[in-house]
Amino acid sequence: MTDAHAPVPDHIRPGLRVLFIGFNPSLRSGETGHNYANPNNRFWRILQGSGLTPRLYRPEEDGDLLELGYGFTNIVARPTRAADEITREEYREGRSLLRRKLEKAKPRVACYVGKGVYEEFRGSRGRIPWGFQEEETVNGVKDFVAPSSSGLVRMKLEEMIDIYKELEAYLNG
């Protein structure tokens, strides 16, 4: 176990198929040092159910997904109980850091795990559809907006999986 306030390490390298981008780590992720570690988070089940992974992975295996071409980061590194605890200053700093990460790593797809993550990165609100966006935020990187996998989100698991299946079809189609 690590300090609950310690950032969870990024798993990024050039040439990724997908870089999954969350708001920030949960307290549980901060304690364990692994992404999507809260037992109520549905992220790992969504990846398996959509066909993005061949089996159900555990949070402790987040680094192993680099072998599948998947990486992880967050717009804000500080773990919190809920995203509404993130400050405007943290978002401002996070936007700049995230842009540099995307420009350096150049993944095929930036998958924003939550519309709010995408809105914070773009710095704009509005009618944002699920799935691929018309404009790229970073040149050469396709933007894909997916529902947050947090257990706090009321969307049914099957609906989330259907949205992620569009990403799987693009990568493997």
TrEMBL record:
Record has Signal as a keyword: no
A molecular-function term among this protein's GO annotations: pyrimidine-specific mismatch base pair DNA N-glycosylase activity
Enzyme Commission numbers on file: 3.2.2.-
GO biological process: base-excision repair, AP site formation
Limits of the Uracil-DNA glycosylase-like domain: 9-164
Key words of the record: DNA damage, DNA repair, Glycosidase, Hydrolase
CDD domains tied to this protein: UDG-F2_TDG_MUG
Alphabetized InterPro entries for the sequence: MUG/TDG, Uracil-DNA_glycosylase-like, Uracil-DNA_glycosylase-like_sf
Protein name: Mismatch-specific DNA-glycosylase
Organism: Paenibacillus aurantius
